[in-house]
Amino acid sequence: MQMRQSLIELFSTFLELDASRVIGWATDARLRRHMINSQAQLSQPEQSENFWVYYWYKLWRDTPESLVRGHLSAYLQEVCYWAARKTVTGISSTQYTLSDCFQMAIIRVDKVLKGYKPNMGFSLKNYSSAVFSSELKEMLRQQNEIDICTNWRLLKKVTQKRLIESLKNAGQSAEAIERCVLAWKCYQELCAPSQPSGTRKLQKPSEATWQSIAQLYNTLRLTQLTTPGAELNPESLEKWLTNCAKAVRTYLYPNMTSLNAKIGEDDGELQDILPQLKQESYISEIIAAEEQLDRQSQQAQIGDVLVKALKELDEEALKIIQIYYTQGLTQQQIAKELGVKQYTVSRRLTKAKDTLLLKLATWSQESMHISLNPSVLNYVNTVLEEWLQAHYSLNSI
Asked: Smallest Cα–Cα separation from 259: which of 3, 31, 37, 4?
């Protein structure tokens, strides 16, 4: 993949992927114009990448749905690509391509931006890399769980709240949703309890069961539906519930459409109809160069704190961490290599990371006067994970 060089490219271009390879970079014309105009408003040229990251991030906090989000999404393209590439090489399934994983991760940009805390001195790239990786792994886990479910198992697992959300997302009317939910309740009562609870391959109900579901539905509709409607036969109920399962799958994992997708033959692309940013003068709020230097200093101090903390770990714990982050082995593989039990590796690794987290959190509290709470600790833990991956990646080159 060819890396972007200029600031304008960094904040206005998007990766084009074809399954498992990079095609090139596509320029968003509006973002490019907006970037050029914003640069022109400055009293003197500013070529610092960090300057523009914090500049756009500050604007995004005030107008999260504006064009500014596009600049930050463009900026994080490479980070997302490498997170997706690392993940896809680690999964055995051939179902997901690099492009699939990239698209699944990049839609989590909003979560990255909402969780990012620039005042803590960590870079947006490092933080987003950890979030993209963890989000992608979780989505793949959940997707696999959904994929291997039959419709009937999925309907057993789904909650009423999620079913209603899925049907609303599919554009169903309130009356249709009410009827579908009643049909689903009848299915739950007459079919699900009699099936093995652990199987993901729950089979379609028998004809006799469908008859019972239809009979129960036709009885309850008279008292539980706002508009009872006509009686339904077993075939109609089966079709309803099949459509419910499809709606749930679509809601949980929608098809992804590129912003560069054509609307029509001569109608431009989807990105062309996104709302324009209402430009206001934020020049007075530009983050000063001194603040950038402070953040760079903080990042260096964080590195010093963690390097020192690593040296204080005992030899076995340090060796486990080194193997884990440099070789990418599983805990079971590490245990085999070291000749110990897997639970020993798990315990030592967890304890070592907890020690590092405590050191970093304590430093943040004492040096940066940050109040520790579950949200902050979760954030620090995410950054610690990314720092360890980056630290050992550099040291292994």
From this structure: 31
Number of residues in the chain? 397
Q: Indicate the fold that domain 288-391 takes in CATH.
A: Arc Repressor Mutant, subunit A (1.10.10)
The tens digit of pLDDT for each residue in 265-313 reads: 555 554 444 443 333 333 333 433 444 545 556 677 778 888 888 888 8
- Looking at 1.10.10, 1.20.120, 3.40.50, 3.30.300, the CATH number of the domain 1-144 comes to 1.20.120
Largest CA distance in the chain: 79
Q: Please state which of the ranges 109-123, 137-151, 300-314 shows the lowest mean pLDDT.
A: 137-151
Q: 208-219, pLDDT tens digit by residue?
A: 999 999 999 999
φ and ψ at residue 349, rounded to 5 degrees: -65, -45
Reference 99, options 256, 310, 274; nearest CA is 256
**Dihedral of the alpha carbons of 123, 124, 129, 132, in degrees to the nearest 10:** 150
Q: Strand locations in the chain, DSSP E? A: 13-18, 21-27
Beta-carbon contacts of residue 114 (< 8 Å; ≥ 6 apart): none
Residues carrying CATH 1.10.10.10, the chain: 288-391
Structure tokens given for 140: 């793949």
User: How crowded is residue 136: how many other Cβ atoms within 10 Å of its Cβ?
Assistant: 24
Which amino acid is it at 224?
A: Q
Which value, in Å, is the radius of gyration of the alpha carbons in the chain? 26
Helix (H) or strand (E) holding 26, with range, is: strand 21-27
Backbone phi, psi, residue 27, to 5°: -90, 130
Query: Taking the CB of residue 85, how many other CB atoms lie within 10 A of it?
Result: 16
Q: What six digits make up the tokens of 123?
A: 């870079």
